[in-house]
Amino acid sequence: MHGRREHRRHRQATETAEATLGSCDGRCWRRRRRLATGDDRHVRARCDHAAVVVKLKRAELTVEARRRNQEQAARLGGELAASRKRRRLTQQQVADLVDVARSTVSAAENGRGAGLTLDTWQRLGLAVGRPLRVELLRDPLEEPADAGHLAIQELILGLGRAAGYRATFELPTRPDDPRRSVDVGLRDDRRRRLVLVEAWNTFGNVGASVRSTNRKMVEADGLAAAIWGEAPHEVVACWVVRATRPNRELVARYPELFASRFPGSSARWVRALTSGSTPPAEPGLLWCDVNATRLFAWRRG
């Protein structure tokens, strides 16, 4: 009896202390503890599920790696055997050169060399005059070398199509020579108008770029005549330049040069490409933002 009373007093004191320290009574505290325990079970369940997923992926990776290794080993073995025979070498002679057993050379040639080290394969390849080259395939997440240029072209193509133009990527200005093309061609059959748009991610030789655009305009005039016959037509051109700091500094450094070559109203050119309004007859220069999501006018300093 005395022991039970002591235990009851101890439990009451503990619950009183817990109620004092917490923001609710002892029953609330125990309920929170049970909920917390349940949350822990949920967390453990999620972790267990993640572990299962990792194990499945690991198993799939192992199977795929083994399959690829076997394919590569079979291909390498066949090429090793063919090269050895062309050189009239025996397996033993190759083994002596490489400092391995003849059975190793035989296994490699028969497609059982997946477990050989890269060093052994390199020596086998060198023994028959064919050094081994190992490389990873291209990363699918890696952007192409001209990704910046492509992004500008993508922007112009989308805007042009929305504005009612027939938009063409890399429009050949001379059909008999596909290497000669303009970055984007915008064609308006109703008005018999051909708009040439050159996209610039970075500048190299500005003078050569200007001469290239001049040549393309002359060639495009012949293309327009072939499309619309003897009826009057119009060929106009503009540059769309990514507004990076180096590009802006370059244009600001040579204001007279760019103003002389691109006298057309930049604001009107922006409207022409975005809404289909009549573009200036003179060549124009306009900016696209660094992310290639919009066009805005070049304002001469």
Q: In words, what does this structure look like?
A:
By secondary structure, this protein is of the alpha/beta class. It has 2 domains: 35-134, Orthogonal Bundle (434 Repressor (Amino-terminal Domain)), CATH 1.10.260; 147-297, 3-Layer(aba) Sandwich (Trna Endonuclease, Chain: A, domain 1), CATH 3.40.1350. Helix content is 57%, strand content 13%. The chain has 10 helices and 6 strands. Strands 1-2-3-4-5-6 form a 6-stranded mixed β-sheet. A hairpin with an 8-residue loop joins strand 1 and strand 2 (181-188). The longest helix is centred in the first third of the chain and has 61 residues, at 26-86.
Which keywords apply here?
434 Repressor (Amino-terminal Domain), alpha/beta, elongated, Trna Endonuclease, Chain: A, domain 1, six-stranded mixed beta sheet
Low-confidence stretches: 13-24
**Beta-strand residue percentage:** 5-15%
Helix % is 55-70%
Shape summary: elongated
- The rounded distance between the terminal residues' Cα atoms is 99 Å
CATH architecture of the largest domain: 3-Layer(aba) Sandwich
Number of strands: 6
Q: Which secondary-structure class do the elements indicate?
A: alpha/beta
Largest sheet, in brief, is:
6 strands, mixed
Q: Order of strands across the biggest sheet?
A: 1-2-3-4-5-6
Element order: H for helix, E for strand: HHHHHHEEEHEHHHEE
**CATH fold naming of the largest domain:** Trna Endonuclease, Chain: A, domain 1
Count of folded domains: 2
The number of helical segments is 10
Mean pLDDT: 85
CATH domain class name of the largest domain: Alpha Beta
Instruction: Give the radius of gyration.
Output: 36 Å
